[in-house]
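Can anyone check this?
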Amino acid sequence: MRFVWADFMEGRANLNQAKPKSRTSTRKKSLTLALFYCRSVPESSEIERQALDRKYGGSLRLFPIPCSGRLDPLHLLRALEEFADAAYLITCPEGACRYFEGNERARKRLNKSKDLIAMIGLERERLGMVMNEKDNPKGLGIIAGEILEQVKGLAPSPVFRKRQRPKEKPS
């Protein structure tokens, strides 16, 4: 078993490489979701992750983390800045975190991040968290599909709009 910090750093490396190929295509672009998830989520192995990559293509970018409590708000904000229209976090059930209070720590950090993006004019719905159920836990694929349906109503992120230069005044 590898040290969990190495897995977290691997996820950060994936975040650095997750830039889109092109945001300016002629066809309508679907929204891109950055999905950070605790490795304790059922059906979250590498095989299932690859199946989700094939199923959703560029609409879903997956980032496994050893514990949801390890997620820094900077990761969410950077995803929104670099490539994602929305960023969500999937945690283990409340009271079932193997690190005791990781999911509660993640909830507090997510709320702070929502406040930050609201201050700059983005919708709070661009960030979210899904806490898995304790009695009947859902797999990663099912939760990812539900989140994609939920964010479908969002408009594309204004962060990626083409910036227009101001017209020069004739002298």
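Reply from J.R.: I decoded it. The first strand starts at residue 33 and ends at 38.
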